[in-house]
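Note to self: the last two entries modelled the partners one at a time, which told us nothing about the interface. This time every component goes in together.
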Amino acid sequence: QQPAQFTNPETPGYVGFANLPNQVHRKSVKKGFEFTLMVVGESGLGKSTLINSLFLTDLYPERIIPGAAEKIERTVQIEASTVEIEERGVKLRLTVVDTPGYGDAINCRDCFKTIISYIDEQFERYLHDESGLNRRHIIDNRVHCCFYFISPFGHGLKPLDVEFMKAIHNKVNIVPVIAKADTLSLKERERLKKRILDEIEEHGIKIYHLPDAESDEDEDFKEQTRLLKASIPFCVVGSNQLIEAKGKKVRGRLYPWGVVEVENPEHNDFLKLRTMLITHMQDLQEVTQDLHYENFRSERLKQGGRKIEDEEVNKDQILLEKEAEVR
Amino acid sequence: CQLFGYVGIEAVLDQMKIKTMKTGFEFNIMVVGQSGLGKSTMVNTLFKSKVSRKASQPGQEERIPKTVQLQSVTHVIEEKGVKMKLTVTDTPGFGDQINNENCWDPIIKYINEQYERYLREEILITRKRKIPDTRVHGCVYFVPPTGHWLRPLDLEFMRRLSKIVNVVPVIAKADTLTLEERAEFKQRIQEDLKTHAISVYPQEDFDQDPDDRALNDRIREKIPFAVVGADQEHQVNGKRVLGRKTKWGIIEVENPAHCEFPLLRDLLIRSHLQDLKDITHNVHYESYRVRRLNES
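The predicted structure of the combined assembly is written out below.
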């Protein structure tokens, strides 16, 4: 990359705004990124292990797994943990929103209400901030991506999976993930993936689609994008344990019959999932902003408009609030 | 009283054996668990033949039914002259719905219906020589290998069913757990069962003598068995073995270092098959009979 500098003004026709991407890049690096990832799935599907593996950290150091007796009392909870990760000067403020209790009860009728409320609340808050007078420090807590964990033990989607995804596909980017993939042979994986994709289409579920590579990208990137698209849903194995295999230390799981390597593309799609998340973080945010948030906003404002006609709005109240904001 | 010479009483054992071989015997097993936990494969692996309900409808795509259904398939299998009339009852739809409340009711109903059927035959004035036995001798319950704890559904089911039938819980698709994870999971399950006073097979209350107790204690330490099912053979070290082939190794189903399938098979078939039938007849069926007779 050419360091940003003013080129010779005598070069005919050159204005200098080609430098803009570098400026944007520098500003972004300074500002850092915010990303909120929601994780949804039944207990025991490998969610926490996968998240820890993806971000090479332990987001849940004091975790106690609740027994069934405690589970019977509970409803779905929302637990958000935020970490600041920095790599080569680029700061990422990552929030992982966990949803313990989802899918665990005998009757899961109501188990997604809490989750949908949470997503809507973040949109509501952003809408409120965006409409406010002081917009310098809007914090974006909107959910940019939802990893939905499908059980590798079933034959495809369960009724709960279908209902949940249909309830949130217009609010958040859904990335279906199959964890604990070491329970499946490669053939079984292909069959399961195909089955899931068929069922997703059959039920009209909208999952996040990776954008095609632009025509001016290089062949490698185009090929990588094709490979990523063809592998959805990703079948992954998570682990942060180092195992000795073939003379070197790798992250993996040790069984009596062999070692499953997390970062081996022949063993599972972990690297693909990580690549997809990193290279498309920006796009996930954009789609959330341009599609899901705008949907929410227009729906909300249509409702909101009607509300103002019905009730007597206290204008003085609003003015006072705005004054407080400016201060 | 002392015998002066050889009388030949022990010949009775041989006669009983020959009789059993000629009449053959019935064994009814039920498999319960969510869709995809390997129930049908496990049954095929246990009896080394295609005896599951899927085997009788090959190629059909697996669809989750909207309610719990019970499907029984009967086969007669033979080994070294001994005939076994094996009935496998499967329960597709169990635990697969969004609302699984009372999904155990159809299963309880079925089990009680078989007891009722036997009772009806037993109280007839002119009885059949051999009452056909459709009672469920063992119910294998498949626990998903989450590695955490038993789920509310698992506890509810086992609590209710263990009162009327022999329940044998197993950890399904155990090839997803490392040996460490397996041990931890088992311990938590055993704790859970104890906390909720769920008595699974072999039940402590029915140990007949110290030898029995010692043998069963050893089994109870290992319950639930961590099993893997497979119906395909692969070449390992020059031998054909039943197993699952993956990129990182072959999981040999009958290798005790890999999984506990041999223990399950030994329990259900080689050592405790008759015991399962006896307990069903002497304990569970009798309880049912007493309840029914008291009602009328």
